[in-house]
Write a structure and sequence with these properties.
Its cofactor is Zn(2+). 45% of the residues lie in helices and 16% in strands. With 436 residues, the protein is an alpha/beta fold.
Length: 436
């Protein structure tokens, strides 16, 4: 890995390089995505079947687009029972963590007849996109479905591309069934996002779409936002390790590579105050790459977006970490909890040398759907909050409104909204009779 001195120039260059990976930088695909969306909106199921045959090589129709109970039973027969048990253990941790995020309706009443409050309602129908093919991630299925289930969403619709045989990856089906998906449809890509956003004869329109996908899926979600809600525009995976001289270089190198193996656009960054650690980590990454099955992908990722930055002080390292605002951040320092209090921007924070990033990906419980490309400065991980909406409650008695009605009228008149003022005034002008 390249080793650089951390200064304003290297930090600026790094930030500019990382931003180039954003889905917003791939405008050349937007026209193709728009065409797919419009075609599905117009031709509905017919377009879904044609695109599925074109892009996935599968013959899907109205009779087999919906995954059957028989297909789910078959999937269980093809998945290692030990893996099913692990999925259930992880699911229990995910459910327990997200249950603590639940919000409830509340009301505040006062003696003068004023009642204010907030009504919390789960979304009625949510769509979950799950990648297919070689990118089959049952952990992502759990992370996207479970918070919706905890929130109380009435119907969870999952879409995922089929293989050429017209079937869905068994581990994906098992994870979806365990997590509580209500319906699973065999369709992927931008056409699946269009189906969820607009509805077709087979697939009902949803209120919100969540889940990761390729650039076509990301741009399709961006295009339908406003027509439906979405979670976020997901970018390539990234990790930043903040370490001092106490860190184990072998652990740090292994953790950096755990994200670099996702794809060639993934980013792995070490920010450290120790030049000795920097060189040791670089050496260990070279050794690991020779042993790992996805070594070629890892090497390309590190060549493009891998960095080791040496900072003069821990405060400088923390400032850089906050500027980068990484999706995953590991803190491996002498006093990691103290450092954590100074971190403002990160999707998920892993504290201590035994809290490696894959712990969060699979098992601990917090959601692994996290903000990328610096959006951790203003976005949060996927949570129960993403599957609820809030309505304000306002109720005033006559006595309560009478005390303040002139204030409201004056406020409205100051904005030249006389109908607003009149809506309040008519209740107190003494003309509550039928004037004919």
């Amino acid at each position: 890995m390249r080793i650089e001195k951390l200064d304003q120039n290297t930090k600026k260059s790094l930030l500019e390089t990382l931003l180039k990976r954003s889905p917003n930088s791939y405008g050349k695909y937007e026209e193709s995505v728009r065409e797919i969306l419009d075609t599905v909106k117009d031709k509905r199921d017919q377009a879904l079947f044609e695109y599925t045959e074109k892009f996935d090589g599968a013959h899907i129709n109205a009779d087999n687009i919906l995954v059957t109970e028989e297909e789910i039973r078959e999937a269980y027969e093809n998945v290692d029972p030990e893996l099913i048990d692990i999925i259930r253990k992880a699911l229990k941790n995910i459910e327990s963590y997200h249950a603590k995020q639940m919000q409830y309706s509340w009301f505040d009443s006062k003696p003068d007849g004023t009642i204010l409050g907030q009504k919390v309602t789960a979304l009625e129908r949510v769509g979950v996109y799950v990648p297919g093919g070689k990118a089959a991630y049952p952990s992502s299925v759990l992370m996207n479905i479970m918070p919706a289930k905890v929130a109380g969403v009435e119907q969870i619709i999952m879409v995922t591309p089929p293989g050429k045989d017209g079937k869905v990856t068994p581990t994906t089906l098992v994870a979806a069934n365990e997590a509580g998906a209500d319906r699973i449809y065999k369709v992927g890509g931008a056409q699946a996002i269009a189906a969820l956003a607009y509805g077709t004869e087979s697939i009902p329109k949803v209120d919100k779409i969540v889940g990761p996908g390729n650039i076509y899926v990301a741009l399709a979600k961006k295009a339908v936002y406003g027509h439906v809600s979405i979670d976020s525009i997901a970018g390539p995976s990234e990790i930043l390790v903040l370490a001092d001289e106490t860190a184990n270089p072998r652990y740090v190198a292994a953790d950096l590579l755990s994200q670099a193996e996702h794809d060639e656009l993934a980013s792995a960054i070490l920010v450290t105050t120790s030049e000795k650690l920097a060189h040791e980590v670089s050496d260990w990454t070279d050794r690991f790459i020779r042993e790992l099955s996805r070594g070629e992908i890892i090497q390309k990722s590190l060549d493009n977006y891998g960095h080791i930055l040496i900072a003069d002080t821990l405060d400088d390292a923390i400032d850089a970490a906050n500027e980068i605002a990484s999706e995953h951040m590991e803190i491996v320092t002498a006093n990691p909890f103290e450092v954590m209090t100074k971190i403002r921007n990160a999707g998920a924070i892993f504290i201590g040398e035994y809290s490696s990033e894959p712990l969060g990906d699979y098992f601990a419980g917090p959601n692994h759907v996290l903000p990328t490309n610096g959006t951790a400065k203003f976005f949060s991980p996927l949570s129960v909050d993403d599957f609820i909406k809030k309505s304000s409650i306002i109720s005033y008695s006559r006595d309560a409104l009478e005390k303040i009605h002139t204030d409201i009228e004056k406020f409205a008149e100051a904005e030249h909204l006389t109908a607003h003022a009149n809506s309040i005034r008519v209740r107190f002008d003494g003309k509550d009779f039928d004037e004919k």
